[in-house]
Amino acid sequence: MSHDQLTIDIRVEREGETVIFRLRGSFDIATSPSVRAALLEAANEGKHDIIVDLSQVEFLDSTGLGALVGGHRRALENGGTVRLVATDGPIGRLLNITGLVRVFPVYRTLADALADQGRVLS
After folding, report:
1. DSSP conformation letters of 79-93
2. How far from 63 is each of 50, 66, 95, CA to CA, in Å?
3. CA angle, 82 as apex, 78 and 85 as ends, to 5°?
4. How far is residue 7's CA from residue 108's CA, in Å, rounded to a whole number?
5. What is the DSSP letter of 46?
6. Coil, strand or helix at 115
7. What is the per-residue pLDDT across 35-88, written as a single tens digit (0 to 9) for each?
8. How far apart are CA 80 and CA 29, in angstroms?
9. Rounded to an integer, what distance in angstroms lies between the CA atom of residue 100 and that of residue 47?
10. In terms of Cα–Cα distance, which of 117, 64, 118, 71 is closest to 95?
11. pTM for the full predicted model
12. In this structure, which CATH number among 3.20.20.140, 2.70.40.10, 3.30.750.24, 3.30.70.1050 belongs to the domain 3-113?
């Protein structure tokens, strides 16, 4: 595995009151602390409507899932939500297999997540 595959690019955007985290790369034990910290910071700063776009994530392991769950819990504590964007590929299948599609609102596109329509159910 090359070094490039062990990195993640976190791009943060704002759409009105929503904070969007666009992730690209591997979301794993090496990179999940950075994502977790960014999600918790957003939830703690009053930005409780959070979308995490996983459509460009190549690999997601249990530590990445844990970071998402931690961010979700913190947002809920502050009256907010975390919505996920995932395609039908490996990441979408992982969310389905783990049952997280019943915990998180999951959408196939960022536009659907922003409009809060077309939620993927298991």
Report:
1. T-EEEEE--SSHHHH
2. 19, 5, 13
3. 170
4. 23
5. T
6. helix
7. 999 999 998 887 779 999 999 999 999 999 999 999 999 999 988 999 999 998
8. 26
9. 22
10. 64
11. 0.90
12. 3.30.750.24
